[in-house]
Amino acid sequence: MRRFALIATFCLAVLPASAQDKAEFQKIADRFVQAYAKGDLNAVLQLYAEDAYVLPPQAPIAKGQTNIAEFWKGEAQRAELRQVTVVDAKTLGSDTAHVIFTSVSRTRGQAPKEFQGKGTALAQKVGTDWKMLVHVWNRDAPEQ
Asked: How far is CA 2 from CA 6, 7, 8, 14, in A?
């Protein structure tokens, strides 16, 4: 029994962290979507590092909390974020991770259009929290 416990502990320690990482980053993505839906800009910004970059489609680069806040404020008026799904997440050492995701958003207005998107984020662990350092995405053509 003791041998089994040691083997089980070893297996858990050496198993790829990808599944655990993916689940952890999906929770963060869900928090992002919920904060965005509520218009809670402070909660959205807490998911970014102080010196983070946002590289959105068809918009200038936003660097740092102030510029990222301005970007998301404007984006919230144009579109609603409906879903973010983490496709893959890999830790790159103990304090950095690479995340691949897909998204679904919809424009606001009288003739809303739904968009599928995909992107990537580079995250860094700050204390016990993951913060995005670089957040890049694009959108596919809207559904007709």
From this structure: 6, 9, 10, 19
pTM of the predicted model as reported, rounded to 2 decimal places: 0.83
| Domains in the chain with CATH codes | 17-139 (3.10.450.50)
**Phi and psi dihedrals of 5, rounded to 5?**
-60, -40
- Sheet of 62-63, strand order: 62-63, 48-55, 129-139, 114-126, 96-107, 79-91
- How far the first Cα of the chain sits from its last, in Å, is 60
- pLDDT tens across 104-138, in order? 999 999 999 999 999 999 999 999 999 999 999 99
Tokens of 88: 């893959």
Model confidence pLDDT, tens digit, residues 35-75? 999 999 999 999 999 999 999 998 999 999 999 999 999 99
What is the C-alpha to C-alpha distance for residues 127 and 83, in angstroms, rounded to an integer?
A: 27
Encoding tokens for residue 43?
């909660």
- 83: tokens are 């879903």
Give the start-end residues of each E strand in 1-144: 48-55, 62-63, 79-91, 96-107, 114-126, 129-139
